[in-house]
Design goal:
Mean pLDDT: 92
Low-confidence stretches: none
Number of strands: 13
Distance between the termini: 61 Å
Largest sheet: 4 strands, antiparallel
Order of helices and strands: HEEEEEEHEEEEEEHE
Strand order of the largest sheet: 11-12-7-13
Radius of gyration: 21 Å
Shape: elongated
Structural class: alpha+beta
Number of helices: 3
């Protein structure tokens, strides 16, 4: 039995969970999230506790048991607290400029500025020209948007310039050895 899948999910005050066949909808103070459950996985609600169960011990169902529990727990956390991902910009002349909360303009050493628009449910903050904060209620979407921004100019290994996650260590290489 999956250790993660067995753990119950506590539903805090102010959060409602709607279970319909293979769909789960979680609504809270931050917003609402919906997800379709995989075949063979069921969710039951007993008061303010959700329990994820699988129908049998088939390999596929064992693999999806813990995953489904984690996804539903992230939905509950997202609608109550939300998720954030911080990015740092390192490099001379590299900076981010906000365009409201729905877009940012990045100067990353290209001949043109790069404009990144936020998908629905995501907002950007630029506390300083070298920091970007991605916020949202969907953990998967927040991580994907942050990864897409990082992908525009990944940190390079010689000088460490580029966009990186806050606290990320970039492995540095030695440059050319002089004769």
């Amino acid at each position: 039995m999956s250790r993660i899948g067995r753990a119950p999910i506590a539903v805090p005050q102010g959060v409602t969970v709607a279970l319909e066949d293979t769909n789960v909808t979680v609504t809270g103070p931050q917003g609402s999230l919906a997800r379709r459950l995989p075949e063979g996985i069921t969710i039951s609600q007993d008061g303010d506790v959700l329990t994820v169960a699988r129908g049998d011990d088939e390999r596929r169902h064992r693999a999806l048991h813990g995953l489904t529990r984690s996804l539903v727990a992230n939905m509950v956390t997202g609608v109550t607290q939300g998720f954030t991902k911080e990015l740092e910009i390192v490099g001379v002349g590299y900076r981010a400029n906000p365009r409201g909360t729905q877009a940012i303009e990045l100067a990353l050493g290209f001949s043109h500025p790069v404009v990144v628009d936020a998908p629905e449910g995501i907002s950007f903050e630029v506390p300083s020209p070298t920091r970007i904060v991605v916020r949202g209620i969907d953990k998967e979407l927040v991580g994907q948007v942050a990864a897409d921004i990082r992908k525009i100019r990944k940190p390079e290994p010689y000088k460490g310039k580029g966009v990186r996650y806050a606290g990320e260590r970039v492995l540095r290489k030695a440059g050319k050895a002089a004769k």
